[in-house]
Specification:
About 65% of the residues lie in helices and about 5% in strands. The chain has about 350 residues and is mainly α.
């Protein structure tokens, strides 16, 4: 990558100039060549947008457990496919978004990504109102929800341009941790939003379920205005660092063995975590709740998956935010090791209990 400023190529930076859309003389490693106000403002706006992105990414995990209750006729396998697709598409889209920061710049990347979030939200808003909506359409909408997860790989480096290395762990941990709370937020507020008319759209008839009326489409439409606000803030407040690189230059990372080591570590940690978090509500329902053998036995007081679905994303988000400063101080390797050991132990305990013979095993 190279800057567009000739003086920079000679090893000298001009005076810091923050008046335009593109910063001049920006070097966060030098106290007189960066502006921490701009850096933290960028972090706040991009984190707010990323929070919404993760809400979109996990939107299906909040809606899917309710689909059959409101009149859809989907098999257990189909429900799992719906909640799996955002993870798959989000992972593939990260390969796209990772090359965009130096091409688009932070301002446009955050602004246009915020607007892209609206597409799957509006799609689900209309789809769930018609129980004849085909499984193929629902799958397409699930794939589009992957946009919310895909943008993560563009947001992190575009924010990283604004911070010195001594603060990068803290800044990026705050962004990923707080942004990650969107996964938990949609699973917390989703069931609540489904319980009443919203935004004056009570003229839309609620769907009927065993426990009364449900406005499932509320969970899909609630965050649309906030995404519009995120786009406005991005185009209005954010600036770009003059970093330029074409796609070919950035693809050099695939020839570096460390890229593949880090990819395996990421699959081990965030990959497993996000995958199980997306399926958590369905797993509870199928193993212990309304779709389990215990429901057929007439046992009352069984757990609802959506009641507990937020716990995984919430804990993961808090750990992300807390471990950033620790990684700055002690290094990332030891904390990745701790994470791997903790996940292995937890998964072993879960595996033993996911084929229960007694509902008390929950």
């Amino acid at each position: 990558m190279s800057t567009t400023d000739d003086a920079s190529s000679l090893g000298e930076l001009p005076e810091l100039d923050t008046r335009g859309r593109v910063l001049k003389g920006w070097d966060p490693e030098k106290a007189d060549h960066w502006d921490q106000g701009i850096a933290w403002k960028t972090l706040i706006v991009s984190t707010y947008s990323l929070f919404l992105g993760f809400c979109v990414w996990f939107l299906v995990s909040a809606i899917a457990p309710k689909l059959n209750e409101i009149g859809f006729d989907l098999s257990t396998a189909q429900l799992y496919w719906l909640t799996s697709m955002p993870g798959l598409s989000g992972g593939l889209l990260r390969l796209v978004f990772m090359v965009l920061p130096p091409i688009m710049g932070t301002r446009k990347l955050i602004g246009f990504s915020s607007l892209l979030y609206i597409i799957p939200m509006v799609g689900w808003f209309f789809a769930v109102q018609d129980t004849s909506t085909s499984f193929g359409v629902l799958m397409m909408l699930s794939v589009l929800c992957g946009i919310g997860g895909g943008t993560f790989s563009g947001y992190m480096p575009s924010t990283g341009y604004f911070f010195p290395k001594r603060l990068s762990g803290t800044a990026l941990a705050l962004q990923s941790g707080i942004g990650n709370l969107g996964m938990s937020a949609i699973q917390v507020v989703g069931p609540w939003l489904m319980g009443f008319g919203l935004f004056g759209i009570t003229f839309l008839a609620p769907m009927r379920a065993e426990d009364g009326a449900l406005w499932v489409f509320n969970a899909a439409i609630f965050f649309v205005p906030w995404a519009i606000v995120a786009a406005i803030l991005a185009f209005w407040l954010l600036k770009d660092v003059p970093v330029k690189a074409n796609i070919r230059q950035q693809l050099d990372i695939f020839g570096n063995k460390n890229t593949w080591y880090m990819t395996l570590l990421y699959v081990m940690t965030f990959g497993i975590y996000s995958g199980i978090a997306a399926q958590f509500a369905l797993i509870i329902n199928n193993a212990f709740g309304s779709d389990s053998q215990f429901a057929n036995q007439g046992i009352s007081g069984l757990p609802s998956g959506l009641t507990y679905a937020f716990l995984g994303p919430l804990i993961g988000s808090l750990v992300r935010a807390a471990w950033g400063p620790l990684c700055d101080k002690f290094g990332g390797a030891i904390w990745t090791f701790v994470s791997g050991i903790g996940m292995a132990a937890t998964l072993a305990v879960c595996a033993v209990n996911l084929n229960p013979i007694d509902h008390a095993q929950f």
